[in-house]
Write a structure and sequence with these properties.
344 residues, alpha+beta, Neuraminidase, five-stranded antiparallel beta sheet, 4 helices, 16% helix
Length: 344
């Protein structure tokens, strides 16, 4: 009986080891299921001037993805995943995911501490200037457990011990009672964003605020050439501020999924004014065109477009589609400037 007890103990020990080994191997197998992705843009083959789905099966799936954002160094990519098919049966479910380029390959996307409380939506993601500061729009209360707000711009930072607690940006970026959203940055620190504050030209206008001595100056409306009596929103500024891409529901747009929210581009002149906005065209705008961003090198534009209904997908296209719309007078001035630089 004693020997049987010893054998039984050995058997239990052996089975415990086997279970641990199987669990370990299963976990590693699941981890290794993620493909080896190397190179920029999650190792994806860049598109030309026809939009394509971004990273199919990795980022873009049969459920919904939106709000893409590359860090300035190109080594982090954040996006939001959701499933609109679940909305009728329960609370809306969102997950903000990040993949990083480490040890020569991209990591399996994992959730960061946003959208963990589905009561308040966090969206419109964008990195700051240092690849560790991350900005987003949120309906969460301005402080404490108060009521949700129309929308404010918030910031979190990635540190050696994880993500910091979100911080709300002060005035003149956020207002107390109006919707403020869609933060994006030029390389000089100027912040561009959307606001429904008083004094605008329509329901939603585009604004900018220059960074001086570490603080943002009074917000400046981009003016009536860009802003209309309709809504302008979901913007992305070129790093050198040479152009701005944005969404507008002004008349003349292409219908997609029942809406007429089209992507437009306006170029900045030497005197700081903006050219008349131009529609990016049917190939882009019949797919969709919200929640947009540029790759870190500004060679490609990412945007949210039509996917498997009722969900959306992230698409991307070469920014040559923008360059071809540049007005002749700006191209000529650039050519003259390059010639002068070569001569001197």
């Amino acid at each position: 009986m004693k020997n049987m007890g010893i054998c039984f103990t050995h058997f239990i020990f052996f089975m415990s080891i086997m279970i641990l080994c199987v669990t370990f191997l299963a976990c590693n197998a699941k981890k290794d299921d993620f493909p080896v992705l190397t190179g920029p843009y999650l190792g994806q083959e860049p598109p030309a001037m026809t939009p394509e789905k971004f990273a199919p099966g990795i980022v873009t799936t049969e459920i919904g993805e939106t709000c893409p954002a590359f860090s300035p160094d190109g080594r982090r990519f954040i996006f939001m995943r959701y499933d609109a098919r679940e909305w009728d049966s329960g609370p809306k479910k969102y997950a903000t995911l990040m993949t990083e380029f480490k040890n020569g390959r991209w990591t399996n996307p994992s959730q960061i501490p946003l959208n963990l409380n589905v009561k308040y939506l966090d969206w419109d993601h964008n990195f700051g200037l240092d690849s560790k500061t991350f900005y987003f729009t949120s309906k969460r209360p301005q402080s404490g457990n108060g009521p949700p707000v129309p929308g404010d711009i918030w910031m979190i930072r990635l540190t050696g011990t994880g993500w910091t607690e979100p911080q709300r940006l002060p005035f003149p970026i956020n207002t107390e009672e109006f919707h403020d959203a869609n933060p994006c940055f030029a390389k000089n620190g100027t912040l561009y964003f959307t606001s429904q504050r008083e004094g605008g030209y329509g329901r939603s206008d585009l604004y900018r605020s220059e960074l001086t001595d570490g603080e943002y100056r009074e917000s400046e409306n981009l003016g009536p050439v860009i802003n209309t009596e309709f809504s302008e929103f979901d913007l992305q500024i070129a790093p050198d501020e040479s152009y701005i891409v944005f969404v507008s529901n002004r008349p003349g747009g292409h219908e997609c999924m029942g809406y007429r929210n089209d992507l437009y581009v306006s170029f900045r002149k030497n005197n700081g004014s903006w050219t008349e906005p131009q529609n990016l065209g049917e190939e882009v705008n019949t797919i969709g065109g919200v929640a947009l961003t540029l790759t870190s090198d500004a060679k490609y534009l990412l945007f949210t477009g039509q996917g498997k209904e009722p969900n959306c997908d992230i698409h991307w296209v070469s920014t040559k589609i923008i360059e071809k719309l540049k007005p002749k007078e700006i191209v000529q001035k650039e050519d003259i400037g390059m010639l002068i630089a070569l001569l001197y």
